[in-house]
Amino acid sequence: MRDLIVTQNITVDGVIEAGDWFGPADGGPEVLEALREQMARADAFLTGRVTFEQLRGFWPKQTDDPTGISAYLNQVQKYVMSSTLQNPGWEPTTILRDLDEVRRLKDAAGGDIVCTGSIDVTHQLIAADLVDEYRLFVYPSVVATGRRLFPDGSSQKLTLTGSTSFPSGVALLTYRTTAHDATS
């Protein structure tokens, strides 16, 4: 069974979607190296339609990307949760229509499945107890408003399995969900 990893850039106060508090280069080269390590372990990228369309409109056009993100996103098997998307236009991409298809994906052989951005899909995955691990890049910002990683009423018992602080002030916190914790 594959692990489904939710990776989010998040503020100290738990916000993952609000305004312009985050920029990809804000974390520095050490954060980029941590992302590269994650990309090396993941052979599936799960996202929602809106995030997919935003990524599709930007990353394939990056011809001189020293980060490696463009190369990774152009080659990785992408899965898009959508009831409306018909033609992804960015291969290799598979459209998933419901959470049962995500469960089947998790049951298949392969590396990690990473879900980044896509707050609506992330909330659905959390509610369906499909998340095995959270990798949270915590940025030293407080925005006090915006959509949060965990919606109201969503209680989670997590086990901290790793923490790394970077010179930029960003901290990477890795948590296993208790239900999916291999050590429990």
Q: What would you say this structure looks like, in words?
A:
Helix content is 26%, strand content 30%. With 184 residues, the chain is of the alpha/beta class. It has a single domain, classed as Dihydrofolate Reductase, subunit A. It has an 8-stranded mixed beta sheet with strand order 5-4-3-6-1-7-10-9, sandwiched between helices. A two-stranded antiparallel sheet has the order 2-8. The longest helix is centred in the first third of the chain and has 13 residues. The mean pLDDT is 90. GO terms for molecular function: 5-amino-6-(5-phosphoribosylamino)uracil reductase activity. This is Dihydrofolate reductase. Pfam families: RibD_C.
Record the SSE blueprint.
Elements: E1 4-11, E2 15-17, H1 29-41, E3 42-48, H2 49-58, H3 69-75, E4 77-81, E5 93-96, H4 99-107, E6 112-116, H5 119-127, E7 133-139, E8 147-148, E9 158-165, E10 171-177
Parallel strand pairs: 1-6, 1-7, 3-4, 3-6, 4-5
Antiparallel strand pairs: 2-8, 7-10, 9-10
